[in-house]
């Protein structure tokens, strides 16, 4: 008998415990710097070389390479390792 597929609905908030800020929360990137949303908006990115430059700089300084998975991430892995097929939708 096959196990039912688990669809896990998630968002940026799942990674805040790892130190990765969300975008819209109280301490979110876009609240601290409303102009930051332009760095990830296609129309602004393609239409303004200065925004592309700022976006590249932001990605170069990306802190996500320096953080560790948190309890929520580990729980998803444990669920999958137990044999339950998991799909994460963000």
UniProtKB/TrEMBL annotation:
<keyword id="KW-0520">NAD</keyword>
<keyword id="KW-0808">Transferase</keyword>
<dbReference type="InterPro" id="IPR029035">
    <property type="entry name" value="DHS-like_NAD/FAD-binding_dom"/>
</dbReference>
<dbReference type="InterPro" id="IPR003000">
    <property type="entry name" value="Sirtuin"/>
</dbReference>
<dbReference type="Pfam" id="PF02146">
    <property type="entry name" value="SIR2"/>
</dbReference>
<feature type="domain" description="Deacetylase sirtuin-type">
    <location>
        <begin position="1"/>
        <end position="90"/>
    </location>
</feature>
<dbReference type="GO" id="GO:0070403">
    <property type="term" value="F:NAD+ binding"/>
</dbReference>
<dbReference type="InterPro" id="IPR026590">
    <property type="entry name" value="Ssirtuin_cat_dom"/>
</dbReference>
<protein>
    <recommendedName>
        <fullName>protein acetyllysine N-acetyltransferase</fullName>
        <ecNumber>2.3.1.286</ecNumber>
    </recommendedName>
</protein>
<dbReference type="InterPro" id="IPR050134">
    <property type="entry name" value="NAD-dep_sirtuin_deacylases"/>
</dbReference>
<dbReference type="GO" id="GO:0017136">
    <property type="term" value="F:histone deacetylase activity, NAD-dependent"/>
</dbReference>
């Amino acid at each position: 008998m096959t196990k039912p597929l688990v669809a896990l609905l998630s968002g940026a908030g799942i990674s805040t415990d790892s130190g990765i800020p969300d975008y819209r929360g109280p301490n979110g990137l876009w609240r601290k710097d409303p102009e930051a949303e332009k760095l990830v908006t296609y129309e602004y990115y393609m239409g303004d070389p200065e925004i592309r430059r700022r976006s590249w700089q932001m990605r170069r300084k990306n802190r996500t390479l320096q953080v560790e998975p948190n309890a929520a991430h580990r729980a998803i892995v444990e669920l999958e390792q137990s044999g339950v097929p998991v799909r994460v939708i963000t």
